[in-house]
Amino acid sequence: MVRRQWAWFVTVAIFAVGAAYAMMPTGHWRRGSAIMGLALLVGAVLRGWLGDKAGLLVVRARWLDTAAMLLMGVGIMVLAFWVPAATKVPVP
C-alpha cells in the first residue's frame, strides 16, 4: 500500500514539515506557510504527472485536482510573503 501512495506521503510529509516549522515559538510562521504552499504545488505537479496512479491525490478529474492544488498552493505562498512582518513599536 505504501508504494501506491508515495505521492500522497511526499505531499503530506512536506506539508507536515511546514506546519511544524510554522508552530515553532521563534516566529517562523512565514517560512512554514511557504513550505506548506510548496507542498501543495508539489502535490499538484505529482497529480498532473502521475495521472490516476497518484494514489490518494486522486479525488476528482485530473484537471480539477491539479487546478485546486495549484490555486491553494499559490494562494498560501502569496499570503505568506504578502503579510508584513511584525515590527516592534517602541514604547515611549
Structural description of this entry:
This protein has 92 residues and is mainly alpha-helical. The termini are far apart. The chain has 3 helices and no strands. The chain has one domain.
According to DSSP, the number of beta strands is 0
How many helices? 3
Rounded Rg: 16 Å
Instruction: Encode the helix/strand succession as letters.
Output: HHH
Structural class: mainly alpha
Q: What is the average per-residue confidence, as pLDDT, rounded to a whole number? A: 90
Question: How helical, in percent, are the residues?
Answer: 55-70%
Number of domains: 1
N→C terminal distance = 62 Å
Strand content: under 5%
What spatial form do the alpha-carbon principal axes imply? elongated
For the largest beta-sheet, the strand count, sense and barrel status come to: none
Poorly predicted runs? none
List keywords for this structure.
92 residues, mainly alpha, 3 helices, 65% helix, elongated
What is the strand and helix layout of this fold?
Blueprint: H1 6-22, H2 29-50, H3 62-82
Helix pairs in contact: 1-2, 2-3
Quick overview:
The protein is elongated. It is built from 3 helices and no strands. The chain has helices spanning 6-22, 29-50, 62-82.
